[in-house]
Amino acid sequence: MSAHLSAIDLLKLGDEDRKKPFLNLYWPYLIGATFGVGTGVMINFGTRRPVFSGIQKHIFGVVGWCALLNYVQNKRDEYFAEKDAVYRHYVELHPEDFPIPERKKLADVFEPWVPIR
Q: H/E element holding 64?
């Protein structure tokens, strides 16, 4: 994105066909599978049974954890969407608070380095 666009122009760009990163898409399922199997293993360990006996415990654990973490991810997405909408509304109502930044060269931003003697 260019630095010469105003805040309103940047907000109107939208997603521009951007995709979520791999981990953002699949983290509820990866962590849910790990926690689900771990839950089944810990239940079996606590009841002094073989680690992977009663496979239904592991399956229910994976399904339960994946559903819970997927719900949390959806609520998180809704929260951030609402927060973005509030920001967008404020910027649209107060464009004078968000001027277009002036373009600067890197040499104008940093002070020249002078060694200490």
A: helix 55-93
